[in-house]
Recover the amino acids of this structure.
């Protein structure tokens, strides 16, 4: 792991887009209630266009390539693209609902040397999972596919997005993952739709449930460590950058739009009009993202969580200011540690109408 | 130099991912996600591993001419390196040229 961190640091120092998340389609065979995408095809890139982009990414130094969507297998040329990507020596990861993966597809993924496959599972209960995906039989088919993939020896991770409809089912999904012999990851993040529609945010699990998740040893490991109060931020923290988005990570949409990250819909260029590397090196938007340091964040720089918060600049951007707080992450920091964020204190000194259960710790910025 | 050694050919496995980063090759095995970085000498050998060029020629052309090292030492060190990578399954070794080399079309960065 240390070697990987060293290479990530080198990629950062050299300005190399080491990881690219490439949504090759927004079309999907499921209609998940929390999905942030528009599934209509508004003119996605052709096979030849995507291959050209892959060539450009290889030239730019991209090593980790995630094919995602939509559902990647909705593209008839998926395996042609996968084969091409592997010939270019990318480390390929796939995000899928796996509904269209049978034994033959699983075998092909193994032959092509896919590194990891992440499958979305919302519940171990058919009635809950299928109600979220709106595709009858989807849990049965996804689980069957996971068995095929695991039998091939492929590394599979079940991604369990938590929302109000399935917030009590994580233990069941974790048990399912163990039974299948695959990894499990939980994500309580529901993001606004890419067009800015925030109506799906009401699916976010309430703070009390989040608190339970963060204090569940089977999910987070060492609870004491995970939920520890944040240490006093030092100079390194204040000079640090918020996340890898736009630094060593880029996102490309099926239409060729380049963003800093899949959760950060800041239009930064389009690979149909410009070479990827020109966008990566010269986009004013990406350079703006790169210029941000923790000390520059008007609210978060004065927050005790500044060094440990999962603050997502993309979510902050969708709230109106990429340098501002991401309230969803404020909530996570609060539920994890019991310590209210600077933004919560700033807003009204009261949280969710309840008396805060944790101590009120608020530090002044180091630069003040 | 090549006459002194038993013919040996090396080719990259198709079950790996690799990319050049700041002059050093990153290599990851798809089988078990083992991650390696190769120093500039090893990177030069890796890039020359086309399955068709004898190892002795690779050492002569890509190591002895670029780095200050005598041929005997260079070949011995390269053999050790090749053996190690082959144990991890990321480099294939044969006494015959590979018919279908798994070399990548692009590795530059």
């Amino acid at each position: 792991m240390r070697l990987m961190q060293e290479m990530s640091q080198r990629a950062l120092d050299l300005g190399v887009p080491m990881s690219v998340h490439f949504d090759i389609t927004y079309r999907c065979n499921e209609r998940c209630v929390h999905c942030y995408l528009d599934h209509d095809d508004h003119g996605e890139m052709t096979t030849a266009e995507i291959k050209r982009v892959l060539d450009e990414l290889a030239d730019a130094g991209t090593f980790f390539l995630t094919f995602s969507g939509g559902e990647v297998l909705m593209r008839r040329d998926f395996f042609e693209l996968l084969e091409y990507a592997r010939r270019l020596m990318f480390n390929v990861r796939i995000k899928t609902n796996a509904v269209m993966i049978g034994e033959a597809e699983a075998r092909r993924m193994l032959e092509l040397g896919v590194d990891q496959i992440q499958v979305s599972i919302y519940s171990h209960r058919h009635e809950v999972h299928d109600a979220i995906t709106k595709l009858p039989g989807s849990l049965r088919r996804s689980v069957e596919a996971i068995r095929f993939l695991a039998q091939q020896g492929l590394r599979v991770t079940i991604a369990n997005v938590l929302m109000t409809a399935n917030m009590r089912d994580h233990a069941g999904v974790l048990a399912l993952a163990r039974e299948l012999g695959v990894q499990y990851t939980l994500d309580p993040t529901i993001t606004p739709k890419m067009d800015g529609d925030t109506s799906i945010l009401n699916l976010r699990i309430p703070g009390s449930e989040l608190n339970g998740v963060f204090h569940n040893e089977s999910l987070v490991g060492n609870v004491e460590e995970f939920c520890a109060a944040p240490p006093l931020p030092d100079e390194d923290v204040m000079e640090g950058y918020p996340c890898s988005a736009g630094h060593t990570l880029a996102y490309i949409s099926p239409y060729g739009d380049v963003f800093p990250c899949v959760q950060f819909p800041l239009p930064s260029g389009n690979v149909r009009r410009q070479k990827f590397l020109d966008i990566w090196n010269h986009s004013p938007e990406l350079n703006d993202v790169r210029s941000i340091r923790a000390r520059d964040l008007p609210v978060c720089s004065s927050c005790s969580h500044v060094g440990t918060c999962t603050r997502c600049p993309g979510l902050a951007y969708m709230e109106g200011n990429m340098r501002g707080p991401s309230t969803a992450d404020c909530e996570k920091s609060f539920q994890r540690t019991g310590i209210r964020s600077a933004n919560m204190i700033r807003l009204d000194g009261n949280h969710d109408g309840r008396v805060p259960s944790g101590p009120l710790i608020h530090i002044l910025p180091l630069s003040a | 130099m090549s006459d002194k050694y038993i013919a040996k050919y090396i080719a990259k496995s198709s079950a790996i991912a690799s990319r050049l980063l700041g002059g050093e090759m990153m290599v990851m095995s798809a089988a078990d996600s083992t991650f390696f970085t190769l120093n500039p000498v090893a990177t030069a050998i890796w890039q020359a591993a086309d399955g068709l060029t004898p190892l002795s020629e690779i050492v002569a052309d890509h190591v002895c001419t670029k780095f200050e090292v005598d041929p005997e030492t260079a070949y011995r060190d390269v053999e050790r390196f090749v053996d190690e990578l082959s144990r991890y399954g990321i480099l294939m070794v044969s006494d015959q040229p590979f018919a279908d080399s798994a070399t990548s079309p692009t590795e530059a960065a």
Observations:
- Confidence is low (pLDDT under 50) at residues 353-368 of chain A.
- The interface with chain B takes residues 3-4, 6-7, 10-11, 13-14, 16, 18, 55, 58-63, 86-92, 113-115, 155 of chain A (CB under 8 Å).
- Strands of chain A lie at 19-23, 64-68, 91-96, 116-120, 155-161, 183-187, 249-252, 258-259.
- The radius of gyration of chain A is 21 Å.
